Amino acid sequence: MRLDKVPQAPPAEVVVGLSTGAVAQHLGVAATTLRSWERRYAIGPAVRIGGKHRRWLPEDITRLEEMCRLTARGVPPSEAARAARASAGGVSRDTGDAPAGPGRAPGGRGALPLGTVRAECRGLARAAVRLDAEAVEVLLERAIEDHGCVVAWEEIISPTLHAAGRKWASSGERYIEVEHLLSWLVSSALRRLYRQRQPPREGVRPVVLACAPGELHSLPLEALWAALGERGLPAKMFGPALPVSALSEAVRRVGPLMVVVWAQGRPSAAAEVVSAVEGVEWGVRGARSRSTLLVAGPGWDSVPHAGSRRLTGLRSGLDLIERRLLS
User: Strands 47-49 and 53-55, how do they pair?
Assistant: First the structure.
C-alpha cells in the first residue's frame, strides 16, 4: 500500500442507521406497525438509502420510544405521535419521566422488571405491556424460528413471563391483563410449533405429559411438549389439572415409556400422584411394563424422594427424555 495515498472513507450509507426490522425488534412492535405510523402520523426515519430502504437514526428511535410509552398509557396514536415529535430528546411533560433509552422499556414505572436479558426479551415485554397482540405474536414466532423452542423459552419467553408475574404480584390487581394476554399468546405459539413438528421417530414409545390434579399453570409443560415435537419425539399432552384416576387410566391405555407430571404449587404435588402412576402396569398379559415417572416444577420441592426423578429445566429435561427414549 502506498503511503502517499489516503484511503477514501466508505460511503455514509454503509454505516448509517438501523433497519426497520431491527428497530421493530428493539421496540417490541411489528414492522408493519412502524410503516403504518410513518404513513399515518409522519413519524418516520430521517434517512433512506436509494430512496427506498429506511434507516432509523438515534433521534428517530427516541421519538418511537416516546410514542410507544405514550400509547402504552392509553394515549391515542395520533396524539402520541404529535407529543413524541414535540418532546423527542427532552423530558416528557405528562409524567416527568425521561424518554425510554435503549435498555429501558417504554411505560416508565409500568415497565416489566426484567434485569439483564436479551434484546428480544425486552421487545417482547414492551409489546406485552402495550397489549399489542399482533406484535407479541410476531416476536414469539420470530424468536422460535430464529432460536428454536429451547432457547426461545429459556432466554426470551420465560424471563418475560416471570417479569409479568412479578409486576402483577407487586401491583395488586394491575398488570394481570398483561400476564393473561402474554400467556395466551405464548400457548398459541407453542401449539403452532407442535403442529409443525418433525415426523415421529419410528419404534419410539410416546411420553405422557400432564399437570398434577388442581394445577392450572401448564405453560412450562406446553414448552416441553412443543420441544419434543421439534425433535420428532412422540408425546401426548393431557393439559392442566388431570385427576389422579384419569392420569392412571391414560397411562394404562397409552403405555408410555415415561410420564411427566408438572406441579407449580405445593398443594398440587400430592404423593398419591407418584404412587398412582408407578403402580400402573400396561401391555399384554405376560409382558407387562411400568412407566418411568418424572416430575417437574417447584411444587415437588417438599415431596419426599421426588429429587431422584426431577426435571430441573427444559433443556436438561428434554435431553434426558431423548436419551432414555432412544436408548
Answer: antiparallel
Q: Residue 290 and residue 205: Cα distance in Å, rounded?
A: 12
Q: Mind listing the pLDDT tens digit for each residue in 122-142?
A: 889 888 988 889 889 989 998
How far apart CA 158 and CA 125 sit, in angstroms, is 11
Sort 40 into a burial class: Cβ within 10 Å, 0-12 / 13-18 / 19+: exposed
- Cα–Cα dist 26/134, whole Å: 15
pLDDT digits (tens, 9 = 90+) for 253-300: 999 999 999 999 888 888 888 889 988 999 888 788 999 999 999 999
Query: pTM here?
Result: 0.71
What is the DSSP code string of 47-103? EEETTTEEEB-HHHHHHHHHHHHHHHTT--HHHHHHHHHHHTTS--TTT-PPPP-TT
The CB-side HSE value for 203 (13 A sphere, CA atoms) comes to 2
